[in-house]
Every structure is written in structure tokens, then in C-alpha cells.
Amino acid sequence: MSNRIQAAFDKLKHQKRKALIPFVTAGDPSPAMTVPLMHALVKSGADVLELGVPFSDPMADGPTIQRASERALKQGVSLRSVLGMVAEFRKQDQATPVVLMGYGNPIEAMGWEGFSQRCAEVGVDGVLTVDFPPEESHDAFEHLQRHNIAPIFLLAPTTKDERIAQVAKLARGYVYYVSLKGVTGSGNLDLSAISEKMPALRKYIQLPIGVGFGIRDAETAKAVAKLCDGVVVGSRIVQEIEDSTAQNVIENVSHLVQGLRQAVDQA
Amino acid sequence: MYNYPDSTGHFGQFGGIYMAETLIPAVEELSAQYQRFRDDPEFKAELAYELKHYVGRPSPIYHAKRLSEHLGGAQIYLKREDLNHTGAHKINSAMGQALLAKRMGKKRVIAETGAGMHGVATATVAARFGMECIVYMGAEDIQRQAPNVFRMKLLGAKVVAVESGSKTLKDACNEAIRDWVTNVESTFYIFGTAAGPHPYPMMVRDFQCIIGNEAKVQMPEMIGRQPDAVIACVGGGSNAIGLFNPYIEVPDVAIIGVEAGGHGIATGRHAAPLTANAKVGVLHGNKVNLMQDENGQITETHSISAGLDYPGVGPEHCLLKEIGRAQYVAINDDEAISAFDALCRFEGIIPALESSHALAHAIKIAPAMSKDKVLLVNLSGRGDKDMNTVAKLKGITL
Questions:
Q1: C-alpha to C-alpha distance for B187 and B147, rounded to whole angstroms
Q2: Closest Cα to residue B78, out of B356, B365, B396?
Q3: Helix (H, G, I), strand (E, B) or coil at A54
Q4: Closest to A183 (Cβ–Cβ): which among B17, B178, B292?
Q5: Which CATH class is domain A3-266?
Q6: Is B90 among the residues known to form the active site?
Q7: CA distance linking residue B320 with residue B174, whole number of Å
Q8: How far is B31 from chain A (nearest CA, A)?
Q9: Beta strands B280-283 and B132-138: pairing type?
């Protein structure tokens, strides 16, 4: 499969750099701000964008991303409107990969074939559904693959070798390693545990490995970047959005992401 | 032959394991351990002992003669799960899961609760076996079920108020899952209903099947035959599947599940996904009929009964409806209250508002049936916990 995700990681590999993958919830702080925020993230050094699709019951997320989902849903954001935001983003940026991240039910409601087709049309490159493990994903992901959309899978500290091998067969784009047991935005990231797990992951997975959950500052981002191919930062950025006003949110988020970029480049 | 779920936890198109990766190994371990112990003679003997001497089983079946005479039609019999220790059927499964937790070396148990009966049952077994216990409960449910909150605290449990979303059962469930994902190694999640990721729908059903298995022996002893219909309320549907499952392959026994009609199906303010033909979707680890909007967002439900106030339903009920073996109907808030009053006045039994839904349907259909027909209603819980709700409805301050 050749799409923007692979091109981005190939380029990074050539440059001997690690990917910075920021996450924002689509429609937070407002639907009108999402596309400008996406451009600002790219300008500040993002290599891949993860765009959260808000869901009423975000079971794998901590309070920060839950609140972002609630803010977006209150403003009428839906999977359809998120796809519209990506289309809008693509008018100016045809290079940066965009991955939709969320829960399966909004996609089930739209239908996987229609959704996958729409993803291809608007320029979505990958889809990560938190609550669809490989066991339940075969039919759904056939539709994604038919339209050259990468199914992105999570792996966790609790994942055993057989499952890593199973995910390796299905995954495209990159694999997202959840760096801690817990919900998004939790603390207590254990660097030694990540580095101990990496050989097992590398043994089966040829794709780039991104690590996320619990990366809250430049120092941690740098330390994590040393161990893997990409660093995912979500709750920290969403927190910055929550703490900002409509006037300074772009500036504040850009400043934060620039700092993360520098840190990751020092890794 | 009816044999569900399959080895991957599916009831036809329903069920499955729709969970975040971190929890997959936990549910796999649970499946393996449950498979190991479910037929283990020592496990079965210990469970049987606890159910008899601690829970007080078997629960009797009672012929509600005065109520039946008043209605002038079919005879109504009640399976008295309200007489169990802690006052509802929930302890059947909480006990089974606690014994499994003990064997798995888990010292901390968590639970979600709606009406509070499952929370009380979990707090009870945790106290019984010396386990730490955390119960997640929607802030709105904490308001309407205050006596049960106090009971849980007396039993040593920590009750955590959930302020997100609709502040009811589904949100408590989200929060319990968040706890589990964080504390997966130390913690056993004692799930309250026959739903969620495999193996929960199967395991909770198996533990609750004692209801139907007892009834299948008790009814012939009482009336020389099986009932014409078995009736139970359905939120997630654990008391119902416990009564229904043993009757699935018994011919000529109608199976009727009663959902919460809230203000009425037409108003949209209800908690009756099966009756309202809700679209199939994915929530809390399984694929089921699910109340949702056109964008796949889960909609807020309404029922006077906190225990039925849930947008989904267990996967086996979805299957039983799809294959036509069971029928699902809805009873509105006011019909449930009338049934609650009737059982108090005619039989001296105060039923839970959840169980009042099942009873209300029996009261609705009995008059048109002949007097030799028999309806077996699962009286899944007692109504002491509902005093505040009922008093408020009647305009009385306690």
C-alpha cells in the first residue's frame, strides 16, 4: 500500500528523524477552528495528524478528551462533518497524512463501505477504531483496504506475542503502541517498560511504531522518541485548547507543538 | 439445537469482543479461567453451598391468587428472586463472579450499578470474601437510589459518583471500564448484566440460569406442568435471560421480555431498544440493538426505573428476538407504577420498579386469557430501594 502515511515515514527515515503525531478532537473548540488548527499543527512540525471523531461514550479516553468530545457533540459535530473538515483541509494540504481516530459505532451507523469511499474522496489516509480489535475487524477493514485506507491498530503493554503477530498481518500505515495501562491522558508513563516491550514489537512488526498515551511534555516526548518511530501527543494538546480562548488557541497550540518538535528532533 | 454463543462469543450477528486492546488479554484470561472452573466440581460445590446457605436459594414460586382472581383470567405465579439475600437476582451472578475472582487471585473488585442492586450485591460478596470494592454509579442514580448508596457504604464499598454524559447506568459502565483498563492486573470487573464483551453475556447468563432451572422443577411440582409463558423485565436483561434460557427448548412455553417504555415508545423517551427496533450498533464491548441517533451517537434513555435505564440490551435477547423465539414488549412508567401498587395491595409484596414492568405486562394480558392458563413472572427484586422514587411520584415527602 502506498499512500501519504508511508511517504511521510519514508521521508522521515531518510532524514533520520522521528515522527511527531499530534491529536486533536474534530470540532473542538469549535467546528470552524478545526481546519485552521490542523494547518497550524503542520506548520509547527507535525508529520501525521490524528483527528478524533467525537463519540458520546468514549470509554478509552480520560476526562480531557471526554470533555473535548462533549464540546464537539454539543456543536453538532458528526462523522459526516468531520469528513467535511478533512476535505476542507485537503484544499491547502495534499501531503500531510490524516488519520481518523474514534469508536466504531458512528462508522457502523454510516456503513463501512460508504465511510471508506468517503474517506478516499476527502483524503483520509488511515482509520483507528479503539473498540474494534482484530477479531471483530475483518469485514470492516476489507472495505477500508479496498479504498486504500490504512487500518491503524493499537497494541498495549498487556498484548501478548501471538496477538502482536496477528495485528502485524492486518495493520497498515503504522502501529500505535499504547504506552501505559489506562485511559488517554493518564500519568505515570514507564519508559523502561516501553523499551523492554520494543524488541517484541519489532520482531513482528515491519511498520513504523508510534507511541502515545501519557506524553505530557517535551522531555518525555524526547525520551519516548528515542525508543520508537513516532510520538503521539493527544491529551496535552487538547488540554491546551481547553485552556485557551478563540483568540489565542492557534498561537498557544503552535507554541506547544513547536516545543515538542524540537524535543523529538533532539532524540 | 440451540447452542450460543459460539466459541468467539457471538450470538448470531450479536455479541463479540469489541474492546480496547489493553483489555483484550483481560477478557481472554477471564474466558480461559471461566472455562476452567465452570464445570469444576469444587467450584460448583462452593457456589451451590453459598447460594443455599448465604443467598437463601432456592427462591420460592408463589401463586398470586388474589391478584389473579381480581384480574379474572390467567393465573399469575411469581418467581421470588426478591427474597434472595440483598433483595434481587443480582447476587446469583455476583457470587459466581466473586468465587471466580478469588480463584484468579484478584483482591480488588469493581462494578457498575444503575438501581444499585448490583452494586449492593457486589459490595456484599466483596465483604463476604474480604475484597476491596469500588462501585461506579451515575450521579442521577445516586439521587434516586439513596438507600442503596448507603447500603453499599455500610458494606465497606467505595461509591464513585459518575458525572459524565447522562449520569446514569451507561456512564457508570464507561467509568468502570476506564478503571479496569487502568488496574487490569489487580482487578476483577464484576459485571452486572448479561451483556458486555465475551465471556460476560455467557457467564452472567450461566450464573443466572439457576432462576429458570429451579422454576423448571418447581412449576411441575406446583401445577403438574410448565407455565404457558415466562415473563421478565429486560434492561441489560440478566434476570430475564436467567429465566428464559432454560425454557428456550421447552415447547409451548411463550417467552416474553418486557422493556421500559418510559413515557411511551412514540415519544422517544424510553429505554426499549428491542421494542422500538433500534438499529444494531456497538457499545460496551458488544454488538446489540442500540438506541442511537442517525450519526451513531448513543441517545439518552428514560425510565422511571434506574435498573432498566440503559440504551442497549444483552446480545442473547437480540438473537432471541431475531429468531422469533422470544417476544419483546414495552411497559410505560405509569403502567409499571399501577402494577407496583397492585402487588402491594393484593399480595402484600412490594416489588422493585424494574420487576413491576414484567408484572404490569402479565396484568395486561391475563384478563383476556382463560383461568387455566399460567403466567410465570420473574419478581427479580424487592422495592424497598424505590421508596423515595414512588413517594416523590405520589407527591409525598418522606
A1: 27
A2: B356
A3: coil
A4: B178
A5: alpha beta
A6: yes
A7: 26
A8: 15
A9: unpaired
Give ipTM to 2 decimals. Answer: 0.94
Q: At residue B52, what is the residue type? A: K
Q: How far is residue B233's CA from residue B376's CA, in Å, rounded to a whole number?
A: 12
Cell, residue B4: 450460543
Residues on chain A touching B164 (C-beta within 8 angstroms)? 63, 66, 70
Burial of A170-193, coded b for 16+ CB within 10 Å and e otherwise, reads: ebbbbbbbbbbbbbbbbeebeeee
The DSSP output letter for B278 is P
Length of chain B counted residue by residue: 398
Is A133 in Cβ contact with B297 (below 8 Å)? no
Extract the C-alpha cell encoding B55: 443467598
Is B356 an active-site residue?
no
Are the C-beta atoms of residues A236 and A215 closer than 8 Å to each other?
yes
Distance CA A201, CA A180 (A): 15
d(C-alpha A4, C-alpha B32), whole Å: 41
Query: Which sequence spans correspond to the domains of chain A?
Result: 3-266
Q: Is A157 on the interface with B (CB under 8 A)?
A: yes
Instruction: Please name the residues between 210 and 239 in chain A that touch chain B, using a CB distance below 8 Å.
Output: none
pLDDT in tens, chain A (267 residues): 458 999 999 999 999 999 999 999 999 999 999 999 999 999 999 999 999 999 999 999 999 999 999 999 999 999 999 999 999 999 999 999 999 999 999 999 999 999 999 999 999 999 999 999 999 998 898 999 999 999 999 999 989 999 999 999 999 999 999 988 788 877 767 888 899 999 999 999 999 999 998 899 999 999 999 999 999 999 999 999 999 999 999 999 999 999 999 999 998
Give one DSSP letter per residue of B107-168, joined into a string: -EEEEEESSSHHHHHHHHHHHHHT-EEEEEEEHHHHHHTHHHHHHHHHTTPEEEEE-STTSS
- Bridge partners, residue B212, by sequence: none
Name, in order, each residue with C-beta under 8 angstroms of B379's C-beta and a sequence gap of 6 or more. B78, B79, B80, B81, B82, B349, B351, B355, B358, B359
Amino acid at B280: V
Place of cell 439518552: B300
Interface contact B183-A181, CB threshold 8 A: yes
Nearest CA in chain B to A73: B297
Note whether B266 and B272 are within 8 A (CB). no
DSSP 8-state code for residue B56: -
Cα distance between the two ends of chain B? 53
Query: Which set of grid coordinates corresponds to residue B53?
Result: 446457605
How many separate helices (H) and strands (E) can be counted in chain A? 12, 9
| From A106, A110, A182, residue closest to B181, measured CB to CB | A182
